[in-house]
Amino acid sequence: MPPGGGMILNAEREEFTLTAIVVNYNTRDLLHRCIGNLRSSARAAGASLQVVVVDNASRDGSAELLRRDFADCEIVLNDTNVGFGRANNQALPLVRGRYLLLLNTDAFVAPDSIGTTVRYLDEHPRCGLLGVRLIGRDGSLQPSCRYFPTPWNEFLVRAGLAVWFPGTRLIDDMHWDHAASRACDWVPGCYYLVRKNVVDAVGLFDPRFFLYYEEVDHCRAVKAAGWEVIFFAGTTVVHIGGESARTDAEVTRAGSQIDALQIESGLLYHRKHHGKRGVAALMMLTAAGDALLALKALIKGRAGRELKSHWAHTLTTWRLLRRTGGGLVPTR
Question: What is the pTM of this model?
Answer without folding.
Answer: 0.91
